[in-house]
Design goal:
With about 500 residues, the chain is of the alpha+beta class. It is built from 21 helices and 11 strands. It comes from Streptomyces lusitanus.
């Protein structure tokens, strides 16, 4: 016996002029009927026999287990002989070898009547059909394993970039995607779709970008596909893809260094929130005025180093691990952060608890999270706190950094956008932030229903052009604006 296309062609050709059993057998090759167990059961009925299909180890794969001469079965399975026949005790037995890519099986047919020409033909052709089905199944399974392994590898590369390990990420990527991460900068895009079509969307992203981008099924959000690309043409590729798919949106970051992949990812998620309200379903993160850019760089750098100084006593790799986890943990939930980093959520919480303890703060306080986020963001943007420091810069505290005329002007302009709402959304937002972004606690303070608080906060998002209900950069900027105008109490830090 051969197999593959030759076997299929021969089986179909020989069956063309044969009776109904041949056509019934070929029906099992149709996509809806490809089941080896059903073929074995059909054979048992077609030749009025007991049939079993077993692998080289003797394990029954389909049919009814039969007592066999193990030496004879082993000879057939090994290919020493292609088939065998045995008669005795009122039974007639046929053994046929069924080859497939990873080994061989033995098809055993036992009946009370001798095998005539008809029964022999049915057994022979059935063995060929089973060979085709096993080969197709193994080929498909191998393809699934390969796709899964490749997807896992892409995720591993992204996770390395998320914790700023660009050297390891490049080393892992070099084997399968040479040159993919050779560039110093890249953009991150996040596509959102129905989770049911996410796999198809990811496959189209890979095809559209010609595998010149890192395409990852987001481990944290079922409907998201993350695309990291050093090519400018990727934006157009993804935009055309979104145009063809209803209810699909894409948000993109600005160009960032590979070490700032986590920052770029946060920007893409923020832009995605805007894309949901746009007619073309796409948005790129707007390089709006951020509060840290309105502060004295030297003073801000020195302040950030002072706030994070309690962590400096840790070994370098431990400090880097804690800071990378905290940066992501402040942007996303513990569960989402764990999935992105490939660790358990308990590990994420333990690392952040340690940072809380060392800094002497409580991350349940939104203003605390906002200030730590500012310090960590400054550390990345301003070369890990290394820079000239002078006595004046060292004396600056957070209150002084936020009280500068440029910062306070920015804060007033931002929050005054809410003053036109007769529902006093500004007060609701302030109370909600002070309550740790907890709608129930804010509702108790305001004497309203928790759903009213959520509706007010949600209505503030398009006005402020910031995503508030999901913790992250947008919420922290609004919290800093409240601190700058004196509407929220300044948090205290051990390092200040």
């Amino acid at each position: 016996m051969t197999g593959g296309k030759d076997t299929a062609h021969r089986t179909a050709t020989e069956a063309a002029g044969r009776p109904d059993w041949a056509r019934e057998l070929l029906e099992h090759l149709r996509p809806a009927g490809r089941d080896v167990r059903r073929v074995v059961d059909w054979l048992a009925g077609a030749v009025r026999a007991e049939v079993t299909l077993r692998d080289e180890a003797g394990t029954t794969l389909a049919g009814t287990p039969l007592p066999l001469d193990e030496t004879l079965a082993a000879d057939v399975a090994s290919g020493r002989i292609a088939s065998a026949a045995w008669d005795g005790d009122g039974r007639h037995l046929r053994l046929v070898r069924v080859g497939h890519p990873t080994g061989a099986c033995v098809l055993a047919v036992s009946r009370g009547e001798p095998f005539d020409r008809h029964a022999s033909d049915v057994v022979t052709h059935t063995a060929q059909v089973i060979e085709l089905l096993l080969t197709a199944h193994e080929t498909q399974a191998a393809g699934v394993r390969l796709r899964r392994a490749t997807a896992d590898l892409r995720l591993a590369i992204l996770q390395l970039l998320m914790v700023e390990d660009t050297v390891s990420a490049r080393r892992v990527a070099a084997g399968l995607w040479p040159g993919l991460l050779d560039a110093d900068t890249a953009c991150v895009y996040v596509l959102e779709s129905d989770p049911a079509v996410r796999d198809r969307l990811a496959a189209e992203c890979i095809e559209r970008t010609r595998e010149e981008a890192l395409v990852v099924r987001c481990p944290a959000v079922d409907g998201h596909v993350i695309v990291l690309s050093p090519r400018e043409a990727t934006a157009g590729d993804l935009r055309s893809l979104v145009e063809r798919h209803p209810d699909t949106f894409v948000g993109g970051s600005v160009w960032q260094s590979l070490a700032r992949t986590a920052t770029a990812y946060g920007q893409a998620v923020s832009a995605l929130a805007v894309a949901r309200f746009r007619q073309d379903k796409t948005a790129v993160y707007a390089e709006r005025t951020h509060p840290e850019r309105l502060m004295d760089p030297a003073a801000l750098r020195t302040w950030a180093a002072r706030v994070l100084r309690p962590l400096d006593a840790l070994p370098h790799h431990t400090r880097a691990e804690l800071l990378a986890t905290t940066r992501l943990g402040l942007e996303f939930t513990a569960v989402a952060t764990a999935k992105v980093l490939g660790v358990s959520r308990n590990t994420v919480r333990a690392r952040m608890d340690r940072v809380e303890s060392m800094l002497g703060v409580d991350f349940d306080d939104v203003t605390v999270r906002a200030v730590v986020h500012l310090a960590l963001h400054t550390q990345i943007n301003l070369l890990d706190g290394q820079g000239p420091a002078d006595s004046a810069a060292s004396a600056r505290r957070l209150a002084e950094l936020l009280s500068g005329p440029a910062v306070t002007s920015w804060a007033h302009q931002l929050l005054e956008r809410l003053d036109g709402d007769p529902r006093n959304v500004r007060r609701t937002l302030r109370t909600w932030i002070a309550a740790g972004a907890n709608a129930e606690r804010a509702a108790q303070t305001l004497g309203v229903h928790a759903q009213t608080v959520r509706e007010h906060v949600r209505s503030a998002e398009p006005v402020l052009e910031r995503q508030l209900l999901a913790a992250g950069t947008d919420l922290y900027e609004v919290a800093l604006a409240h601190l700058a105008v004196g509407e929220l109490e300044q948090p205290l830090f051990a390092g200040e």
